[in-house]
Amino acid sequence: MKVLWIFAHPEPRSLNGALRDEGIRTLTELGHDHRQSDLYAMNWNPVVTGADFAHEPADRLVVGSASRQALENQTLSPDIRLEQEKIDWADAVIVHFPLWWYGMPAILKGWFDRVFVKGFGYGVSSPGPDRRTLRYGEGRLAGKRAMLITSAGSGEPALGPRGVNGDIGELLFPIQHGTLWYAGLSVLPPLVVYGADRFSETAYDNARTDLRERLRTLPTAAPIPFRRQNHGDYEDLVLRPELAPGRSGLRIHQTN
Fold first, then answer.
1. Would you say 183 and 95 are in contact if contact means Cβ atoms under 8 Å apart?
2. Which of 83, 142, 167, 248 could be joined to 115 by an S-S link, Cβ 3.0–4.6 Å?
3. pLDDT tens by residue, 164-200
């Protein structure tokens, strides 16, 4: 496989840095090709501006239409085009970050804001007269795999179904379902490292073993069974009443 590893942590000597290094070694041992986007090391700019799209400052900036036009005209800024080329190259994308304030670090959010432009990550339509919107399992990035690796200071029970911090699957829903699956990538269950602020050598050995196994099964592991928008489960973008009857919330958008 060809694997793109997106890394968003400011300290290469951190726990996450050590796991990233172990992951890259493992991919090499397994015979996979790999590339990296180490966002802090790259000094990645996370802020969307008109300069991303060669936009004339005197004109009102409409980000969606400006980004689509720049994508089609190949006038996106070079740093964005390079990241898109990496994604096009990859069969699988690893998104690796610490969980900060219930979400991604700002630099990683800005990577998605700038790279997943209209016509690339969203705003994709099927050919023909019906012009069906392709998202949630379809789209330009369909056929690729993605997996999150994240660390949390809390222990696992506090991020469980009844934990005070909320269920980890629901906390990661915006990126797993609302970003990756939305753009068409099949999303594997995440690798979550709990209690990262109090890690022992034994805990690290266990995390390293888990990471190696997850990378070994990267080509074959079953993805999270998110529902597809255009396969009959939704009517007017609302889940059909006979599916998950009497239930609501994020979990109804999975088939189990």
1. no
2. 83
3. 999 999 999 999 999 999 999 999 999 999 998 888 8
CA 143 to chain centre: 14
Residue 243's domain spans which residues? 225-256
β-strand partners of 38: 7
208/236 same-domain check: no
Q: What is the pLDDT of residues 121-145, one digit of tens each?
A: 999 998 877 788 999 999 999 999 9
Write the CATH number for 118: 3.40.50.360
132 with 255, same domain: the answer is: no
Q: Please tell me the pTM assigned to this model.
A: 0.94
Say what the alpha-carbon torsion angle 178, 184, 186, 187 is, to the nearest 10 degrees.
-20
Give yes or no: residues 183 and 255 share one domain: no
Determine the straight-line distance between the first and last CA of the chain, rounded to whole angstroms.
28
Cα–Cα distance measured from residue 39 to residue 61, given in angstroms and rounded to the nearest whole number: 26
Asked if 231 and 142 sit in the same domain, the reply is no
